[in-house]
Every structure is written in structure tokens, then in C-alpha cells.
Amino acid sequence: MKFLLIEDHPIFRIGVQALLQRRWPEALCVECGSLQDALQALREPPAATLALLDLNLPDAGGVEGVARLLRAAPGLPVLVLSLNAERAFAERVLQLGAAGYLPKDQAAADLVRAIERILQGGRYLSADLAEHLMQRVGGQAQSLPHQALSEQEYRVLLLLARGERVADIASTMHLSPKTISTYRSRVLEKLGLGSNAELARYCLEHQLLVGEG
């Protein structure tokens, strides 16, 4: 069994590794301080069993890290760890294909349980996040404009709000600049905004950029 622990804070890595070694003493735990380190580790045998991914890395912030990791390793179970308990993040990472979402302040109590569930083929969410998603499915929870965006549109929204250029976003997402410009136009229209500055302001107001990791 091989775990990839993709986290740039050494103290948190130490704590997580201790939990993993206590439950799975024979497992190999590969620590990666960046997404690039993780992509390199994926190329080295043995094959990874599960990845634990911080949402805020030096070279990949928010849902972009999830998207890039799953593109490099389709089918790899990914448990996202985040300081932010914002429900919108949980919903998005699950839609992208992550196997679970765990706020970091719940890791000490729930990490092993979450991993066990994922290794058994299930998905993991804390009780309060699961309840919110059930309400969303049932139409009881209030929706915000960004929640109606497609996954590609949402990724473009966050990258634009971070100040990325269209050409750079196109390279990151392996799409043409024309396609990214089309996504940008759709995002502006759906959110009722007129510029990249307004996109950034919207993301800050809804805490889509703050405290993602």
C-alpha cells in the first residue's frame, strides 16, 4: 500500500503520517511538498493506493490541484484536506472526481475512518457537509450564482480571479485561448459581472479564494 501525502506544511505532514503509520504500519507514505513532487512520485513504483491532497499548494491552489492530479492519475482515490470547511469546495472537488473531503480540523478524529471508507470503494464527507449536499439535491439549500457554473467554467473563474492570463489558463487546462475566452464570457454572463476585477471581488466576497488550503 502506498499513500501520497501532498501537503506543504511539515508539521501537518508529521501528524498525518503518524496516524497513517499507526493504522497501516506496513504502508509506504511518500511526502510531497508540491503538486509537481506528487506528479513525479506517481511515476515511481509501486503504484499509489490513495492520495491525500492539500487544497493550497505552492504550485496549485484550490480545485485546480485536484483537476491536475486526477488528469495525471485517472481513477486514483483522492481525499482532499482543507482548512476551509466551506461547503462549496466539498461539492466541487467531489464533482471533479475526488473520493472525499475532510476539513483539517477534523483530521485527528476522522482521517483513518475516511481513508478506510474510501479504500472500501466508498466516498467520504463529514456529517454536516453530507447534510448540506442532500439539501442541495432536494432544493432546500440556497444556491449562489457560481454554483450553477460547469466544472470548466468554475476552474476558469478561479484562475481568472487569481490574476492568471487567458494564455496561461489555456496552457494549464490544455485548451485553446479561444475556448478559455468563451468560458470567460459565459462566467461573466452567468454571474452578471463585467470584468476580471469584478470576478476577483466576487470570489473574495464568497470566500472562494481565501483560506483554500
Automatic annotation (TrEMBL):
GO MF: DNA binding
UniProt xrefs under SUPFAM superfamilies: C-terminal effector domain of the bipartite response regulators, CheY-like
Ranges where the HTH luxR-type domain occurs: 142-207
Example GO BP: phosphorelay signal transduction system
Keyword Phosphoprotein listed: yes
Gene3D superfamilies: 3.40.50.2300
Residues with 4-aspartylphosphate modification: D54
Ranges where the Response regulatory domain occurs: 2-119
Keywords tagged on the record: DNA-binding, Phosphoprotein, Transcription, Transcription regulation
Residues in the signal sequence: none
A Pfam family that the UniProt record links to this protein: Response_reg
Statement: the UniProt record of this protein carries the keyword Transcription: yes
InterPro entries registered for this protein in UniProt: CheY-like_superfamily (IPR011006), NreC/VraR/RcsB-like_REC (IPR058245), Sig_transdc_resp-reg_C-effctor (IPR016032), Sig_transdc_resp-reg_receiver (IPR001789), Tscrpt_reg_LuxR_C (IPR000792), WalR-like (IPR039420)
Protein name: Response regulator transcription factor
Provenance organism: Inhella proteolytica
Lineage: Bacteria, Pseudomonadati, Pseudomonadota, Betaproteobacteria, Burkholderiales
